[in-house]
Structure formats: C-alpha cells, structure tokens
Amino acid sequence: MPADFIISLYIFVLGGFIGFSVITRVSRLLHTPLMSLTNALDAVVVVAAMIIAGRRETELAVILGTIGVAASFSNAVGGFIITERMLGMFKTGKANKS
Amino acid sequence: MNPIVQQHVTDFVYLASIILFILSLKWLSSPATARRGVRAGEIGMAIAILATLAGAGIVQYTWILVGLAVGGAVGVPLGLVKTTAVPQRTALSHAFGALTAALIGISEYYIQTPHVPKFGMIEIALEVIIGGLTFTGSLIAAGKLQEILPQRPMTYRGQNIVSLTVLAAAIGIGITLMFWQDISWLFPVMVVISLLFGMMLVMPIGGADMPTVIALLNSYAGLADALLGFVLNSKVLIVAGALDGASGFILAVIMCKAMNRSFTNVLFGAFGQLQTGAGKGVEERTVRSATPEDAADILKAASSVVIVPGYGMAVAQAQHKVRELYDLLTKQGINVTFGVHPVAGRMPGHMNVLLAEADIPYDKLLDMDQVNGDMPQTDVALIIGANDVCNPAARTDSSSPIFGMPIIDVDKARTVMVVKRSLNPGFAGIDNPLFYMDKTLMLFGDAKNFIGEVVRELGPGSHL
User: Fold this and answer.
1) A42 touches chain B (CB under 8 A)
2) Do B70 and A83 touch (CB under 8 A)?
3) Reported pTM
4) Residue B394 has pLDDT above 80, yes or no
C-alpha cells in the first residue's frame, strides 16, 4: 500500500469526524441551507478540474477538465448565492416588527 | 518564484481554505451566525481558486477561463431559483459535482494508462463508479422532482437482483483492469455501466422518499470528491469531500429515522407503489366537512393553534396565505406555532425555508418533538397539505405500512382541521384514519384558495 494512501486515509477519517461533530450541531431549521452550503464547498473540486484543463497533457484531459471547471464552478456560484438567499429569509419575530 | 516555494505557498493557501470550510459549517449551527459562515466558505473558495490559477503547472489559461465563464453563467440562474424548486436544484448540483469528479477520474486514467499502479487503479475505478452513478442518479432524482419523470416508483420483477448484478459487473471490471492493464477498452464499458446503475438505482424510488435519496446522493457526491482527492493526492479535496459526505450521511440517517425505515428499505423497497388489491370492500365511513366560515369561527375561538405544513402546501404555493392567517390569528392573541416533520416536503428542511421565505419568524417553527409535547393542550391542529406525517395508524395499526414511523400527534389536539383536495389517499397510498375521527373537520379545496377564504372571513372587513 503506498504511503500517500495512508496519509490520505488519516486525513479522510479525521475530516469525517470533524464533519460529523460540526454538522450534528447544525440547527434542524437550516438543513436545506446546510445541503446547499456543503454542495458549494464541495465544488472546490473546481481546483482539480482547473489543473487538469490547464496542464494540457492530453486533448481529452483539456476537454473533460473544461467541462469539469464549468460544472463545478456553477455549483460554487449557485450554491453560495442560494444559501445566502435562504439564510436571509430566516428572521426572528423581533426583527420582523422593526 | 521558484516552483517548489510556489507549491508550498499553494499548499498553505489550501490549508487556509480547509480551515475556512470547517468554520463555515460550524457557524451554520444557528441562524444568527449562519451568514458569517457563508462568507467564510466564499473566501475559502476564492483563495483556493486564485492560488491554483497562480500556482505552478498550469500552462494554458484559455480553457480554464472559458470553463469559469460558462460555470458562472449557469450558476447564477441556478442560485436564483424559487424556493419551491430548491429540491430539484439541489439534485442537479449533486449531478454536476459528481460529473466533475467522474470526468477528472476518467482523464487521470487516460493520462496514466497503461502504467496505472495497481492501487491507483482501484482508487480511480471506485471514484469513477461512484461519480458516474451519482451523476445519473441525481439527474433522475431532479427529473422526478421537476415532474418531468413520473414520481411513482417504476419497478419490475427481479429488479433488485438485476441492479445489484450490474453494480457487481462494474466493480468486477475495475478489479480486472487492476491486473490486466492492456484491456483498456473495458474502462469505458465500466463507465457506461456505472451510469446505467445510477438510473436503475433511483428510478424505482418514489417521490415521498426523495428527502432520503437526495441526502444519500449528497453523501455519494462528497465521497466521490474525497476519492478523487485520494487519486490526485489533494488534501483539500479529501477534507471537503469528507465534510460533504458526512453531512449527507447524517441527513440521510435523520430522514430514515423520521420514517422508521432502513437505508436498504428506502433504496430497494419501492415505497409508494399503488397498493393493488388493498381496495377490496371499503366500508362506508363518514367524514365531516366544513366551510371556510366554519373554519374561521373555530380558529377565532381557539387560544392555541398548531399548523402542520406538508408538500401539498408547497405545491399549492399556499405559504403566503398561511402567513396572512398567522398574522391575523397572532394579532388576536392566539398562540400560533408550526409543527414541522423532518420528512415534510421533498428535501431535509424544505418546509422551514418555504415558511421563512413567507416571513414567518423562525422561532415559531418547531420540530416534531417540541410540538408533540404541547399537542394535548392545543385547541386546533390545522393540517395543510400533509398526510402520512400525521397518520395515527403509525402508532396504532401494526398492519399499516407506516407503522412505527414517528408522527406529529395532531389527533391529540381538541379539534383537527385538514385542508385537502379530496379524500384520495396520499402519495404512499395509505389510508388515514385521522380523516374519519369525530373531532376532525375536512376542509376540501385547494390549499391556497381555502386558506385565502378563511383569511377573508377573519380579515378586518369581516363581521369581527
């Protein structure tokens, strides 16, 4: 088993635990924004797509990478916009009256 | 800058992104800090993209910029959809995320072949299979939610065996490629099979199970990204994927618990089929119905009202009328709260967003456990477009398909009013004894129109 794999596995397991403890604390009210936010954060895969498209190793890689950049960047943009919009809708009774 | 230093700088920026991503989710714990959380996520994303653009290894920018421009142009309208369309938008974004992961895995394979290390091959195969099935599965889910595809489960005899055989074939090809690199024509076959499996996985699942399915697909999309992080040795991808995967998994568990069902049952149970043969000898049972005036009179006389919203409220776009009703009743000193079942709607938290959009204060949106404790002291439970989530058969009738599912105990309130189009059983095709109880009044009609008429009765121009 390559050493890189073991390091990656450590990061994955620890990341999963952090995710678990942070996300169980998210208010039930906000489960829809939670989903759109994690979706937007997951769009960091755009970074990998950019590298694949920009290294110009093969033509196929450039084509698939470019599609990947478009698909994941649309998730980042759309995900952040909709999360902000939804969170802006949640108001307390007091804020409503003022 | 020397390329090694440049690489270190990029790595540190990615580390900063990871920290911001974790903080972003941490701040989502309460509505008060949540917007700060989004800001943190946006900054983390922006610096990761900028560091990559400035980093070593990129020799050609044209196509990256084209991709970013197209992505931005598609992303903005997808961020501005109506709140009722959020479930299908979410499913679509899972599809996009999984597509990206799958495409990068495919290009990595073709860059490395025929010298893919054995271990790397199994990582790529797993990543492409999960990415592929999540891509098509999410597209089917989005199609069902948009009602392009039928919401009823589509099933045939022996379906589960066929589906699982297909999945096994894809994994088998992955293992084969690990040992025999030169038969690389098998790789596209594996991709196609995984795409096919995604469709076969979601096709048989009914609309009412979509909250669980969306959460599971969310988890798979995260997993695909994390696996891609393994393939590319990218820490930021592994962490983002692990966070997303954990989030989807937790939500899926919450949804399953709220329906008293297991993952296997949701995925392979084809819940919500027409129950053939169940219609035999339906005995005559009486139902009491009421007019908007009656409903208004009863609401006026109450001192506490719990409103239970469901998917029907979203379909009828009744949330703004509900808000008017809430205002009028609150003004008269009546305590109005909302009882939101975890699986009400088509995705986790769906109802809360719709009601918050209609300007209902979020401290009035209570979850099932909070609202059930007060139910015996509640004068009126008003059910708008919900059905199975308040079916008392879940507590009392062990032969019911939903027996054991936690429900909102509306039958314990003094009076129950149900706004519903007709007596047709709900999506799952399960009869609801609530409708035939003595204390229940059926308010037949379109939710938006009916609540609108109640509001008119209660309104300032009325005989109050």
Assistant:
1) yes
2) no
3) 0.89
4) yes
**Residue with more model confidence, A89 or B158:** A89
Instruction: Say how many C-beta atoms besides its own lie within 10 A of residue B119's C-beta.
Output: 14
As to burial, measured by CB atoms within 10 angstroms (0-12 exposed, 13-18 middle, 19+ buried), residue B91 is: buried
Helix, coil or strand: residue B444: strand
Rounded (10°) angle between helices B350-357 and B319-331: 60
**In what helix (H) or strand (E) does residue B420 lie, and over which residues does it extend?**
strand B415-420
What architecture is the B292-458 domain classified under in CATH?
3-Layer(aba) Sandwich (3.40)
Does the beta carbon of B67 lie under 8 angstroms from any beta carbon of chain A? yes
Active site residue B374: no
Cβ contacts of B40 within 8 Å, gap of 6 or more? B20, B21, B23, B24, B27
Cα B290 to chain centroid, rounded: 34
pLDDT-derived band of residue B198, with 50, 70 and 90 as boundaries? very high
Strand residue runs (E) in B279-410: 304-309, 335-340, 365-367, 380-384
State both tokens at B297: 């009179």
Of B350 and B3, more confident: B350
Average pLDDT, chain B: 88
CB-based contact (8 Å) between B46 and chain A?
Answer: no
pLDDT beneath 70, residues of chain A = 93-98
Q: What's the pLDDT tens digit per position in B293-335?
A: 999 999 999 999 999 999 889 888 899 999 999 999 999 999 9
For residue A41, what are the domain limits?
3-88
**Amino acid (1-letter code) at residue B109:** Y
Contact B68 A69 (CB under 8 A): yes
The number of folded domains in chain A is 1
Instruction: Report CB contact under 8 Å: A90, B97.
Output: no
Instruction: Give the residue from A47, A52, A66, A94 with the most B CB atoms within 10 Å of its CB, the best one to mutate.
Output: A47
DSSP characters over B137-161: HHHHHHHHHTTSS-SS----TTHHH
Q: Which of B107, B238, B244 sits opposite A38 (nearest CB)?
A: B244
Rounded Cα–Cα distance for residues B25 and B240 (Å): 11
